[in-house]
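Handover notes (outgoing to incoming on-call)

Open items:
1. glutathione transferase: sequence verified, structure written out, both below. Nothing else pending on this one.
2. Nothing else urgent.
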Amino acid sequence: MSTYTLTYFNGRGRGELTRLILVSAAVQFEDVRVTWPDDWPGTAQADSPLGQLPYLTIDGIKITQSLAIARLVAKRFNLAGSDDLEQAKTDAVVDTITDLQNAFYLVAFKDEPDALIAKFIAEDANTHLERIEKIVTLYGTEGYSVGSSLKWSDLHLFDITSTFLALDVNILDKYPRIQAVRRTVESNDKIQAYLKDRPETSF
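glutathione transferase structure tokens:
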């Protein structure tokens, strides 16, 4: 049986999707949480294949790039789609959600970001959420972003929209299909148990 070690900062960020996939698949893994500035950059950066986080170590082999990691474990544990067409749909949903994530990070990690974040929530976020609502309506059924079973796209949607709900509790009011996917993920027993014990972090 393979062993899995995820190395990422002590936060959700670009590592949480892989955590959620492994949790939902009931896969044991070591969750190495790097702290700044104690462990980073230092030896933690030197140990990373590209000098960045996250990376996943599988049986001693280090895999880098967050979406490559998440896609790999999703495929291994049957959360990527039942055939190549469903996998393509799932990838498309993941990419659409990642567009929102990337756009938000461009403002969230700037110096004095509060005004930029407020502007993003009021304006840009809804453009992205409309696109996500459209694609999950196109490819999914009620409660699922693709098909009629849990995919890694559902977990990605849950994770990223959780960040925005923390900033504006009403931001998803116009998006019933997104809300339905969130309810599906929230009702998963393994995810519930993980979220109950997950460390509180700033990102």
